[in-house]
Design a protein that fits this description.
58% of the residues are buried. The protein is an all-alpha fold. The radius of gyration is 21 Å and the shape is globular. It contains 18 helices and no strands. Helix 8 (207-226) packs parallel to helix 17, helix 11 (267-283) packs antiparallel against helix 18 and helix 12 runs antiparallel to helix 18. The chain has two domains: 11-195 and 257-459, Growth Hormone, Chain: A, CATH 1.20.1250; 206-256.
């Protein structure tokens, strides 16, 4: 029945193509920023005298802000219009990129990254929802694969261009480039995007649920960053209690920001999102950790480190469209689970990094990890978006985005916790290289074990078709 409804409301092909172009362009932006910034972190650390934990917050502050606002903006877009939120998000992302480029201190850089994360949330929560709204079920895997491939193209070009920009123009040039790209996306939306989607128009926005969800995520992330101090445990406990109250509130609200029935009555939706959370938690910090390893222990320049790091996202960009098309014919559960299993192998290979490890080995491990992620991501996305009714597309897209951002946030939080345990507040200097390497290995062993558990979560989702 849902498929028949999609076909009846299908929009003209030229209009669908415009939706695909702007959504795909936006999907390029933030991964390009994150992967380019990973290469630039040592340069930022030297300019602002930041230790490893603070450097982690340059990436994590964006992720945390995006995670807090994703679901609220997804619901707000379902009510008031996805194109509208997408357009303003593109503009906000561009302007806050400029603020980051101009930041004169670590505090202002982190504040600008928080604001940039809010703009990113407006894009994340609507882009995929617009794409799902515009295309019928029979073509959904294909276009979602193209969209995911654009994400990985950003991840691919980020390390290379980020290394070139950092080495020749300084790390601030990365933010200037992102600001310009954000303005281009904003201009495309204003000039060419004619459709609007607001299937939940007239519903009341759940401000209380949004506030409680945001507070819960902030408490958990800040708690992770403060461990092993007692305040860290207190904050995590407060966040978990907040999560319980959030679930209770949402089950009693007539128009919740996040419909709990999507999880309780839809196993495909619930376990696909859980699999995404685990997968991103286990893999996102890889770029951060390997970048620091290559530049500190191996002594590579930002540009050369970027050329090694490109191996993982290139595999993602090449194979994501193929796996997306395959998921239109083969049960997504099987493809995604196989992808997580391959990712476990890649993480195990990285856990053997040492001072004498060859760069070819590092690149090969990243290739394996990239192929595993490509095999997982597009089919998993197709499973999530095809398992809900049209009026929930915005919330479904935002929920998946929240799982992605929360997973990335937890991944960075775990890496920073491990650094804190092994390095304390020390900067990464030759004196602490042995402790640094132990921390990196420990992180990869933990992520491999976590990803292995994710294989079983992925297999538990049930059949989509």
């Amino acid at each position: 029945m849902r498929q028949a409804e999609d076909i009846r409301r299908e929009i003209p092909v030229p209009h669908r193509t415009i939706v695909l172009i702007v959504s795909t362009a936006a999907s390029f932006l933030t991964p390009f920023m994150s992967s380019a910034l990973n290469v630039a972190l040592p340069s930022i650390g030297r300019e602002f005298a930041m230790n490893a934990v603070l450097l982690g917050w340059v990436a994590t502050s964006f992720i945390l802000a995006a995670a807090v606002f994703l679901v609220p903006f997804g619901k707000f877009a379902d009510i008031h219009g996805r194109k509208k939120i997408f357009a303003w998000g593109s503009l906000a992302y561009a302007l806050t990129s400029v603020l980051s480029a101009l930041a004169p201190s670590p505090g202002l850089l982190l504040a600008s990254r928080v604001l940039q994360g809010i703009g990113g949330a407006m894009i994340f929560s609507t882009g995929m929802a617009m794409l799902t709204s515009a295309y019928p079920v029979s073509e959904r895997g294909k276009v979602l694969g193209i969209n995911v491939s654009s994400t990985y193209l950003g991840l691919s070009l980020g390390p290379v261009l980020g290394g070139v920009l950092t080495q020749n123009l300084g790390w601030r040039s990365i933010f200037w480039v992102n600001g310009a790209l954000g303005l281009v996306v904003f201009g495309l939306v204003l000039a060419y995007l004619r459709e609007e989607w607001a299937e939940a128009r007239g519903e009341k926005f759940d401000a209380a649920g949004s506030l409680l969800l945001g507070s819960t995520l902030i408490a958990i992330m800040l708690g992770l960053s403060r461990l092993p101090k007692p305040i860290g445990g207190i904050l995590i406990l407060a966040g978990l209690i907040g999560a319980v109250f959030f679930v209770r509130l949402e089950t009693r609200t007539s128009n919740p920001v996040l419909n709990m029935n999507l999880f309780r009555q839809n196993s495909v939706f619930a376990f696909s999102n859980l699999a995404a959370l685990i997968n991103y938690c286990a893999t996102f910090a890889v770029g951060f950790l390997v970048s620091l390893y290559l530049q500190y222990l191996k002594g590579l320049s930002p540009q050369k480190a970027g050329l090694i790091l490109i191996a993982q996202p290139v595999m993602m960009a090449v194979f994501s469209p193929l796996t997306g098309r395959l998921s239109d014919r083969i049960e997504p559960r099987l493809l995604a689970s196989a992808g997580m299993a391959v990712s476990v192998l890649g993480l195990l290979l990285l856990s053997f990094l040492g001072p004498a490890t060859g760069l070819g080995f590092v690149g090969a491990a990243l290739v394996v990890l990239g192929f595993g992620f490509a095999l997982f991501s597009s089919p998993n996305t197709n499973a999530v978006m095809s398992s809900v009714e049209r009026r929930y597309y915005g919330v479904a897209s935002a929920t998946l985005g929240t799982m992605r951002m929360t997973g990335q946030m937890l991944s960075m939080g775990t890496a920073m916790l491990i650094f804190s345990l092994f390095l304390g507040a020390s900067r990464i200097t030759p004196d602490v290289f042995p402790q640094f390497l132990t921390a990196v290995r420990t992180a990869f062993w933990f992520f491999a074990a976590l990803c292995l558990g994710g294989v079983f979560a992925s297999l538990s989702r049930g059949k989509l078709r």
